[in-house]
Design brief:
15 strands; alpha/beta; homodimer; 13 helices; 7-stranded mixed β-sheet; lyase activity (chains A, B); Aspartate Aminotransferase, domain 1; about 450 residues; 2 domains
């Protein structure tokens, strides 16, 4: 198979002409053409290798042969819809159920995290009979109409907040309204949800769901204070609502210690609805909603069928099963714990050297490096973060930024990321920050 | 690869326990387990063969080797997201553009017809600055929140019509408010849209889009009166709205004479936004929105990025390209014309024999057989249609019903359906209708 059909300039010209420009390229000033990938490595049209630190979708590694094999074996046999009985969908649901608390036992398979989150909203609405949703500030839950409505990251830009949507402050221990020095962060941030619910009730409205990522990603790779979710769940359930955990970015062992990020919140916490997506099919469009029998029954009781044409087809489920197998066989959760831990430690060492590093945070292979202009006032070093990403690209390491000020460099690599990769990344960041400092000093001394 | 993991009873038990019951099975009284398929044939766990007359998704035939080959070759190479430049997405857009009028030239790739229709709504809204949508009665445009809002087939059951949604009568020449004897069906039905727009304006509201399938499917395999769409487009555009053609079920040559069903409406008609889905990836989750540069530019101008994680990835596009190749190489559009024409002719012959057949309609391999209790009053023979479908299943032919009264037997088989298949289907329907008549007479004479 030819790796390239058109020269890069032509690809770029066709892309500009034929593809909606709302779909943006990485490094849009000088985009990269990737023609081949394996594991955590990408290769451009000239055979140059890039280390991929951000493709969380290619969870078990780009082009893993076990996934390709499972897909093509099932494609040769059958890819009908789920109106016919088939073993893959039930086997896959059974395998996923084994990773979850018993309470989460009814599955709906769909094609994207967005489809999953939309269905989660419908399930919550149908079960509770309520309309209102509480979300965290800066959250992004997907590209669909209903999800833009509940994504402050999007609706703020469009300038339209729906009256049924209520935004709670992001429980960010570094930059939030309560910080790491607060004696009880979980309680303090949960109290705000409680008072927000009171305000909603005063308006004569009722809470359908609290909807949040188990680790806010676009929000800036945030680790929620432990205990926060169970307190919030208590308040939300008392108001007749449900707790929806969006694990589209965070599930499948990425956090290292657990299979799901919500489990970081403690043994006593379990969401009522959980959505999963990106890493689930290693790039194949596959996502899912799991909920309780009570909520599923309420959804069935309205008598309106839910049919998803491609969702849960035998090929998607074969791929999903193969992903679970590889995670286990290659101990990728263990690898995330070890390599992520090592990378975090290396980044912490850099923090001791470079004052621009305000915070190093994260779990497993879900890490954030927050750059600040000043450690006291924590003003975001947005431009510098952008420079680091661009300079890292020259070193052929692919990174990007997140957070409301785009000053958090995120690490969400394929789970096969190695110790050597971690060391290479830390070393290059060290050099680049050193260079930035030098340039900065030069500029300063010229003034 | 083992064809079965669990015995059928266990599959069924697990399905009931683990999968949301809102996702219904075909033949729920006695569901079929399918383990293998090829072309237009399905095989159950005992190796019994079924003729598939309804899987329009498996457009070029179940498990076509060219599609499997294209998918696995690309899966071995790369499956990154569209933030990196890649040739497949631009080549695929270019190939699709060649099937469309020049005006439709900017593509957005997504994972399902529902995602496509949701994006179409957003594009229309952003471009026009208006909110209101006119839809056809009994329409179904997808399972997402925003699409249930514009699908009378769904929102009627949930008992909630949004104030920005306006339902126009289905231009059904057999059962609609104007029928085949009307001198100008297109004008009569379009006039209703015109007056509906006036009503909307009187309320101080404005039209964003007229949103309709090019051939209403769930509505009962309806063929719109030729000329209808260009008149409607004229009125809708005069009101500042756009025309969205939902071709999720009808595109890719199914109608035989043309590649797109909207082209049946005449040379002078072109929608402003067109959505495609089901057959596009032959079962792989792949769908698309195409629109004009003006509408795409308005969407870009809001400054809010549209990113679809899996949409347009190299594997999806490789599969899409392979589907286009097979349609051409095997002349499947020509086959749809020939075999569909023959099947329609055979069904017309049955209509001459069986008074229960009220109408035979359709184009290419998109056909409907409408059963009525009485040819005069056209009362729907819902129960009899259900009996025919069940009896056909015993003959190992898979069919189902559509239409508001579920009395329209639909034919939307894989496009490799053969003359022999058509003859077998017509012969069996003939026998079953004969039997039904006999049973009916027996019951009658007993009374």
């Amino acid at each position: 198979m030819a790796l390239e059909t058109f020269p890069k300039e032509q690809t770029l010209e066709m892309r500009k002409r034929l593809i909606g420009q709302s779909c943006r390229l990485f490094f849009s000033h000088d985009p990269v053409k990737i023609v081949r990938a394996r594991g955590q490595y990408l290769y451009d049209e000239n055979g140059l290798q890039y280390l991929d630190c951000i493709s969380n979708v290619q969870h078990v590694g780009h082009c893993h042969p076990s996934i390709t094999q499972a897909a093509s074996a099932q494609m040769e046999l059958l890819n009908a819809n789920t109106r016919f009985l088939h073993d893959n969908i039930v086997q896959y649901a059974d395998r996923l159920a084994a990773t979850l608390p018993n309470k989460l036992s009814v599955f709906y398979f769909v094609n994207s995290g967005s489809e999953a989150n939309d269905l989660a909203l419908r399930l919550a609405h149908q079960y509770t009979g309520h309309d209102d949703v509480v979300v965290l500030d800066h959250a992004y839950h997907g590209h669909l109409t209903s999800l833009i409505d509940i994504s402050p990251y999007k609706f703020r830009k469009l300038g339209a907040q729906k009256d049924w949507v209520h935004v709670a402050p992001l429980p960010d221990p570094y930059r939030g309204m309560f910080r790491e020095d607060h004696p009880d962060l979980a309680q303090a941030y949960a109290d705000i949800i409680q008072s927000l619910i009171c305000d909603v009730h005063k308006k004569g409205r009722k809470i359908s769901a609290f909807f949040a990522e188990s680790l806010p990603s676009v929000g800036g790779q945030i680790i929620l204070p432990p205990g926060y979710s169970s307190k919030v769940a208590e308040y939300v359930r008392a108001a007749g609502g449900v707790f929806v955990a969006d694990e589209v970015q965070t599930g499948f062992g990425r956090v290292g210690t657990h299979f799901w990020a919500f489990q970081l919140q403690g043994e006593d916490f379990c969401p009522d609805i959980l959505t999963m997506g990106k890493p689930m099919g290693n790039g194949h469009p596959l996502a899912c909603v799991v909920t309780t029998t009570e909520i599923a029954n309420a959804f069935t009781a309205n008598g309106v069928e839910y049919f998803n044409t491609f969702g849960g087809n035998p090929v998607s489920c074969a791929i999903g099963l193969a992903v679970l197998d590889v995670i286990e066989r290659e101990d990728l959760r263990g690898n995330a714990l070890r390599v992520g831990g090592h990378l975090k430690e290396l980044l912490k060492q850099l923090q001791a050297k470079h004052t621009i590093i305000g915070d190093v945070r994260g779990v497993g292979l879900f890490l954030g490096l927050e750059l600040v202009k000043d450690r006291e006032d924590r003003s975001p070093a947005t431009e510098e973060a952008d420079q680091v990403v661009k300079r890292m690209k020259e070193e052929r390491i692919v990174l990007s930024t997140d957070g409301p000020w785009e000053n958090v460099i995120k690490f969400k690599p394929p789970m096969c990321f190695s110790m050597e990769d971690a060391e290479r990344v830390a070393e290059k960041i060290d050099q680049i920050l050193q260079d930035l400092k030098r340039t900065h000093h030069k500029v300063e001394s010229r003034h």
